[in-house]
Every structure is written in structure tokens, then in C-alpha cells.
Amino acid sequence: MPTDWADGDSFRVRLPDGEEITARLYGVDCLEHHVTDQTDARRLRSQRRYFGITKVRPEAAAAIAFAKDLGRQASEETRTFLSRPFAIHTSFADARGDARFKRVYAFVFDADGRDLAAQLVSQGLARAFGVSRSTLVGESADDYREMLGDLELRAAAAGVGIWEHTDWDSLPVERQLERDDDRELQSAVGKAALPAGATIDINSAPLAELMRLPGIGETFANRIIEQRPYARLTDLLEVEGIGPATYRRLKPMLRIGGPELEGSP
């Protein structure tokens, strides 16, 4: 379903039963081209630094416009891919996003079995980044993530897509700037503790909210997201690295469904 806000990795579809959802591809991240707030702007800056393209144009405004155009190329590739018969595989794990739309993580394949995420990375139109998951053919989430990473490396070596414009001399500096900015933001905001009696919905909480749990950093938060949805809290024991002791410590702060987090703005 064409929408003006859709990018290469997130798009609107109507299922055979008439339900409409927003599908968010596992494992990949395309450049933002529909930037509406500071969060989108920061994400685009992070993406530009990752690909080493922040200085491909002398003026900042021109460099940003150029990056958005590259993002539109990914959207066009996705539209072309979805113009043919395709299949969506999803467990309906909540991918957050715009509250007006149901957004779920998904794998997307065409009639020939081509993986849309792999296609975007292979053409240099997306980076291998973000939440992954085990696949229908038995690949683990880590294996799928590594596969996409290998495709990214090949695309970068071939200089295709966004990689054609990478400034390789400045790329290490750009990525270091991004890491420094992340640390500065984390230091400024801090890891706010949960209010007394507050609980988090493990099926819908975003990454930052999960990281408010004691002992849960980005790696474990991503693992929790990758295993969604959960039918019972005890299903968390299937997440790698969460054993009985960790589960007992976290259980009073967790829920499935129900009211929003107490004390949240």
C-alpha cells in the first residue's frame, strides 16, 4: 500500500484477510528520507556516519539532501520488489513506531524465494543492523545477522549503492564521532531506574525502556525483542543469557499486556 512516509525497510501492507499492518524488516536499516522530528534527524545522521557520507557535499544541507535521495532509492527498490507476488513471515512481534499503525517485524520473500532484506543489503541500499530473529529454515538470529553482514561487506567492497559514495578516509572518524555522541547522550540521560511498583510489557516495550531493567543492556534488550511475542513471562527463560536467577530478579517488573508503565511521561 503506497504511503508517503514508507522507507525501504518499513512499509504498509494489506493482508489477505483485509487487515492492514506496517511491516518492519528484520536485520536491516535503510536511510531515512521522511524526516519529521529530531529523532529522525539523529537517526539519519547516525546512518550517514555509518556509511561515511556526511561530507560528500560541501554544504551540510546539500549532504543531508543527498542522503535522503539515497534513502529514496531504497524505497523505490522495495516498491519494485513488492510489485510482484511476495510473502510475509511474521510472529507479529511489536516493532513500535507510529502509534496510529500496527508495526511488526517481518521477513519478506518474493515468489522466487529472494529475501528483501538481503536484496537491499546486497545492492548497498541498507546496512545490516537492528533486531534479527531465527528463520523458517532453521538459521539462528545470529546466523541471519552474520549472513547479512557478509553481504554488506561484499557490497562495500564492490562499491555499490551508498558505498559508491563512501569517503573511506573519513569513515573511521565519522563512526567514532557517532560512538562518542552515543556515550555522551547516555551519560547525560543516565539509566533511569523504574519507579517503585512499575512494570514493563515485554511484548511491546521499546529498546530504551527494556534497558531500564536492572542488568539489561542493549545486547540483552535486543535478544528480548528478537524472541517476541511471549505468551507467558516464563518464556523469557528461553532468551539466551537469562537464567532462573535473572528471571526471578526481573519478574516483579514485568508484565504481558495490561496498563502502560506507571510513572512514565
Structural class: alpha/beta
Unreliable stretches, pLDDT < 50, 5 or more residues? 260-265
The CATH architecture designation of the largest domain is Beta Barrel
Question: Which CATH C-level class of the largest domain is it?
Answer: Mainly Beta
Q: Specify the helix fraction band.
A: 25-40%
Shape: globular
- Please give the number of β-strands: 8
Oligomer: single chain
Strand neighbour order, sheet with most strands: 1-2-5-4
Radius of gyration based on Cα positions:
19 Å
Mean pLDDT: 88
Query: How many structural domains are formed by the residues?
Result: 2
Major β-sheet profile: 4 strands, mixed
Number of distinct helices: 8
The CA-CA distance between the termini, in Å, is 33 Å
Strand content: 5-15%
Written as H for each helix and E for each strand, in order along the chain, the element string is EEEHHEEHEHHEHHHE
CATH topology description of the largest domain:
OB fold (Dihydrolipoamide Acetyltransferase, E2P)
What does this structure look like?
α1 packs antiparallel against α5 and α3 (116-122) packs parallel to α4 (141-158). This protein has 265 residues and is of the alpha/beta class. The protein folds into two domains: 10-165, OB fold (Dihydrolipoamide Acetyltransferase, E2P), CATH 2.40.50.90; 200-255, Photosystem II 12 kDa extrinsic protein (DNA polymerase, domain 1, Orthogonal Bundle), CATH 1.10.150.320. The chain has a four-stranded mixed β-sheet with strand order 1-2-5-4, with no helix packed on it. A two-stranded antiparallel ribbon has the order 3-6. Helices cover 38% and strands 12% of the residues. It has eight helices and eight strands. The two termini are 33 Å apart.
